[in-house]
Each structure stands twice: as C-alpha cells, then as structure tokens.
Amino acid sequence: MSFDTTLYLTAVITLFVIMDPPGVIPVFLSLVGRKSREARNRAAWQAPAVSLAVITVFAVGGQAILNYLHIGIPALQGAGGLLLLIIALELLTGRSANQMQGAEDVNVALVPLGTPLMAGPGAIAAVIVFVSQADGQTSSYLAIGLAILTIHLILFLALRFSTVLIRLLGDGGITLLARIAGLLLAAIAVQLIADSVRGFIAGG
User: Fold this and answer.
1) For a Cys-Cys bond, which of 48, 57, 59, 188 suits 155, CB 3.0-4.6 Å?
2) Where are the domains of the chain?
3) How does pLDDT run across 78-113, given as a tens digit for each residue?
4) DSSP class per residue in 110-152
5) DSSP-assigned letters across all residues of 161-204
6) 43-74, pLDDT tens digit by residue?
7) 3-class SS of residue 53
8) What pTM value is reported for the model?
C-alpha cells in the first residue's frame, strides 16, 4: 500500500486556506484574553479537539448525515454564516467580552471557536469532497486522515503560542483586537451567506 503524498499535500493546503490558522488567532485572543492562564491554555487545545471531532464525524459519514436530514451544503453555509454574524456583532459592540467576564463557565472553545469558525461549512464540504473522491482506496483515506490531523496540530500550535501575545497587548490591545476580529468575522459571515444564496440559486 503506497501513501498518496499528492492527495495529502492537496488536502493540507486546502484545509489550511479554508480554516486559516493565522486568521483564527485574533478571534481566539479576543475571546479568551481576559480569562485565566489555565483557561486560555485549556481553550487552546479544546477548540482544535472539538473541530477535529466534528470534521472526523463528517469525514466518516458526512454525506449520509446530510442526505438523511435533507440538508445541502448551501444550507450549512447559511447557518454557519448567521451564527458567525451574531458572534461578530457581539465582538464589535463589546457585549461578548462583558458577558464572559461575568460568566467564567462559558466555554468559547466549543462555540464559536471549535465550530463553526474552525470546523465550518467550508472545511466540512472540502472533507466530504475529498472522501468522495477517494474511491475506496485505503491509501487515499490514510492521506485524508493524516491531513486532517496535521491541520489540527497546526491550529493547536498557533493558538497555544498566541497566548504569549496577551501580556504584550494588555486590556486595551485585547479590546482593539476584539473589534478587528469582529469586523473580520462579519466579513467571513457575509461571504458564507452570499455563497449560500449562490448555492441555492444554482441548485434551483
């Protein structure tokens, strides 16, 4: 059994572009910057772990799940876009930070970091497509699996070592970062909704 290096590299690059580890950092810091060091470090591994679990589930049975629920990729994109837009508005208005200061038990590693920011509609759709193109070949499945593990290791390292920036930023820097992250998230959300609308039009 030969390892499909081309498919592995293609999948890693595709998921890197879609999941955008550098782009996740400002959102991560804006959400966990005021939490304790232990909470920040915990979120740094929990968010990629949640994303890995979601992506793995959809890699194994994603198409079957979507078919059973009669859900298309455009619907997934629309739902993810709306959820991210809500989070973006909270970051822009500062409401999210205030809420989390008063509620330390809020686990942002689950939502919005783990999903839909990391394991979003784009990443889910890409994985489903890669698996459908594997044609039952074990080497292809192995390449896709290792690619998924690789991108999540990159995400973990990016988040884990980004926490050192918090000491340099301070409260003012984190607030500014939250506003920038909110603007970026809003743009991502609008793009997802636009892609969803285009998908519905093309499908119709």
Assistant:
1) 48
2) 5-203
3) 888 888 888 788 778 876 554 544 445 567 888 888
4) IIIIIIIIIS-HHHHHHHHHHHHTSTT-HHHHHHHHHHHHHHH
5) HHTTHHHHHHHHHHHHHHHHHHHHHHHHHHHHHHHHHHHHHHH-
6) 999 999 999 999 999 999 988 988 899 888 88
7) helix
8) 0.79
